[in-house]
Design a protein that fits this description.
Helix content: under 10%
Structural class: mainly beta
Oligomer: single chain
Distance between the termini: 44 Å
Largest sheet: 18 strands, parallel
Shape: globular
Number of helices: 0
Strand content: over 45%
Order of helices and strands: EEEEEEEEEEEEEEEEEE
Amino acid sequence: NSSDTLYVGLSGKDSVITGTFNHTGPICVLANKLTFRKATATNIGNIIVIGGQLEIDTSVFNNTGFIYVLATGQMLVNDAQLSNFGDIYAFGNARITMNASTLIFPQTYFYQLSFLIGNQSQVTLNNTTWNCNSMSHGFTVTDSAKLVENNMVLHGFTTTGIDSHGSITINKTTQAGEFVITEYSNLNVKNA
């Protein structure tokens, strides 16, 4: 158990966490890579900031707080479950990729939590289940950001705003939701 801020990247070394991890302070992945592998992790530190790489691999990760993926930061979730009671943001050239995983927003009321991506960031969700506690949630794609969904299962309902030069590509989903589209944005939906 730890309540101090966990910094990764100050030593120039990657870090791997396995087993049980309980943390009550912020997590800042400034550079290098932090990997949770075969871990059961809980963080209630209100914020995770990723400027380096965060990988959640074959793990269960419960987070209470915001997740910011910034600049050239990367968050990779493989064959894992990420439960986040907070908003998720990606800006700059950030990348968030989920493969064969489950993303849970444990909302207690409609539109409580949201996902916002901007600048040139990209979110790719492959063979992923997204559970918003069977409630509506918000998603925003702005600037030149891209959202790509392949073979998604959605429990809940999404209202997605897309503007500027934002782009969304959806190929096979149980429910695409509703879209508010403005400016020069691009929406491509197949098999929905």
